[in-house]
Each structure stands twice: as C-alpha cells, then as structure tokens.
Design a protein that fits this description.
The protein is mainly beta. Helices cover about 15% and strands about 45% of the residues. It has one helix at about 135-155, and strands at about 5, 10-20, 25, 30, 35, 45-50, 65-75, 80-85, 90, 95-100, 110, 120-125, 130-135. The strands form four sheets. Strands 5, 7, 8, 9 and 11 form a five-stranded antiparallel beta sheet that branches. A four-stranded antiparallel beta sheet has the order 2-12-6-10, with no helix packed on it. It is elongated, with a radius of gyration of 22 Å. The two termini are about 40 Å apart.
C-alpha cells in the first residue's frame, strides 16, 4: 500500500513536551526515568518523535528508547483494559517519523527511555496533513469514472 503525504511544517501539530531527570541515590546509582505517556488522545497514524539526552564524552549513543501505541481493546486482563501496539525504536538527536497501522480507535503514546539516561528531553508531533493511501486514491478515481459514465448516459436520455 502506498501513502501520499505532504511533509511540510504546516502539517505538523506539537502535541507533547516532556523533560525529566533520573533520581540520584549515590554517585553511581540512579533511579531510571519512568516512561512518558502523552496525556491526549490521537487520531493521526503518523507521529514524529525527538529525544535528546546528554551523551557522556567518549560514548556513541544512538538509541533513544521506544514508543508504543496504547489503546483500549475492550478486553480486560489483570485489571487493565489497555492494549499496546508493536514498539517502534526512536533515536537520539534525530526526528524519528513513525507510521502506525491505521486503527479506528483513538490512542495515546507511551515512550520508554533507556535506563542509562540521566536526563531526557522529548517532543512529539502529530501529522495533520492529507494522508491518502493508494487504496483511497484508487477508490476516488473509480468513483469519478462511474460519475462520468452516469453523466454520459443521462445526457443521452
């Protein structure tokens, strides 16, 4: 399936910003930064994520954690009604664009950070532009062809 999207600055909406610092128990012992959950429900299947952290000198970190699409499935197991989609990796100091499978339910995002991060800055955007799939484009073309043929037939009457 092909998607037709227009990535321009006007087609993105900032939806969530998060900053956190790991708890310090001692010089070498930290309480990891907990996952961040976007406090809004989303409808777009295209999301952009940016993660920043202080990378220690001499290290070459690229991995910034992962994102899950969280939604209510209608099933309750263990007292929770939340379901999670497949995790998507995100990267440090790089905007990562995520294409989630289309679902009809509204969903939220949960972002998990590596346990070795001592601080983190997170930004999330939702795509608001046109998102046509090849399936939608084909159906639109077929509908236009049918309308054209109906117009031709009705003009002969």
């Amino acid at each position: 399936m092909t998607r037709n999207v227009s990535f321009t600055a006007q087609n993105w909406e900032s939806i969530y910003t998060f900053n956190a610092t790991a708890g310090i128990l001692s010089e070498n012992t930290y309480i990891p930064i907990p996952p961040a959950t976007a406090p809004i429900f989303l409808e777009s299947d295209i999301i952009a994520v940016y993660v920043n952290t202080d990378v220690p000198d001499g290290r070459n970190w690229r991995y910034g954690g992962f994102v899950e699409q969280r939604f209510t499935s209608g099933l309750t197991v263990g007292g929770s009604a939340d379901a999670a989609g497949s995790p998507h990796n995100i990267y440090i100091n790089k905007i990562t664009t995520l294409f989630f499978p289309p679902i009809t339910a509204q969903y939220s995002l949960k972002v998990y950070f590596p346990k070795w991060f001592k601080s983190v800055e997170l930004q999330l955007w939702q795509y608001t532009g046109v998102d046509d799939t090849s399936e939608n484009i084909t159906l639109t073309e077929e509908f236009a062809n049918i309308n054209f043929k109906i117009d031709q037939l009705s003009s002969k009457l």
